[in-house]
Amino acid sequence: MGEISFAAVTSQGEGYMLVVRPQCTVDHAKRRDKVQVMLIHEDRLFPAEPVTRKIAKALYEHVRCLPIISPHGHIQAEWFARNEPFPNPAKLFVQPDHYIYRMLYSQGVSLEELEIGESELKDARKVWRIFASHYYLFRGTPTRIWLDYVFQELFGQKEPLSDKTADLYFDAISEKLQTPEFLPRALYERFHLEVLTTTDSPLDSLAHHRAIRESNWKGRILPTFRPDPVVDPEFQGFAGSVVKLGEMTGEDTYDWTGYLNALRKARARFRELGCTATDHGHPSARTADLSAAEACVLFRQVITGEADAIQEELFRAHMLTEMARMSLEDGLVMQIHPGSVRNHNRKLYEQYGRDVGADIPSPTNYVDALRPLLDRFGNERELTIILFTLDESTYSRELAPLAGHYPCLRLGPPWWFHDSPEGMMRFRERATETAGFYNTVGFNDDTRAFFSIPGRHDVARRVDCSFLAKLVVEHSLTEDEAFEVAHDLTYGLAKQAYRL
Cα(435)–Cα(410) distance, rounded to whole angstroms? Predict the structure, then answer.
């Protein structure tokens, strides 16, 4: 049936031709059979323009198989210490990944339905079916890219995940998870990981890290020192955690000097097991440089619960400067992850606790906030502080100029909500002209989802190669330079920045 045309007249007496096209009657299932042979396209995320795409693909081939350096993440060391099969698909993919269940929650799926917070799932298949039936929600998101990569490259799936394929996926993944090839240590090697870091509280015994080392397995699973529970007065159980820190280190942590000594001893314990970095998830980037007497008085107010919100923020600010001082002493790289209003949904926080996907970015000041710390340590070449942001407006206005000047500062990759193709490209476009490439630290995945690590790094490599290809086409960079920079962004800068 073809088009139907007929003449018409407007109310003003003007004539026009109206064309009516018949409704499309394509059988989408048959069309998908013809064109949907893979979940992911080999040219995904490359530029559409042919010349630029060709250069991007050549750069990508140069770095595609380089080992993965994962210097900041939230994977569990216990997996590699025990080296036991991973659980069912729902517990593996849905339960630990706030990228997934925050999207489902936004569309009316309750956390109870997903059994979030349950140590053992009552009905894993039901949880998986809920996820599968809502998989369309992830169209256009980086989560979709990561998951499709895993489903195709690791589990051999070619049909998209949906309510129709939910059981097929569940059974196929469950079966493979029971094979030796899918044990944690085997996957570490299959993913071509060179080093993988965890994020750990000062109160963690690090027993699993010690067990890995004593097993003589060659994989490098290293701890990262995250002192938030004992330096943030708003952290739940803060005072009790400080007491426990004192018990673990043999120091009087109700005394300011003893408290600092306890932190130094805890850092030394981490370093013995290969730790090279600290991480600080403060609400803001504010720093302070108090005198010893002022810090002692403030600490007494904080530890006894007498401090108000302003004093608690001042204490966190001063502790960032103390952590920088300790990093100069012991060589640990310092990471600052500010700007997240955590646990924004009070109802969910009260019911489920921390980190259930209700964290929201907020504006963050770096120029004024970091100045006390930088006045004290900013010119130290032996100190490395890696800055992250959830406030993209600061890339060109604050972060790139700061990192482009102070010897101690480096820029971390786009983080959390900006860990996406467009977010990565915006970062390169806004930061490179001022900070260059070599004041950045490559890519880190910052994930709890172990299976997504190769896909996340693949996205970063493709985006960086696309950005470099554009510079080559515009004659801002030679091809030889682009190949060298691509290698550094993928591999060299992370190793150097994190002292790996």
Answer: 9
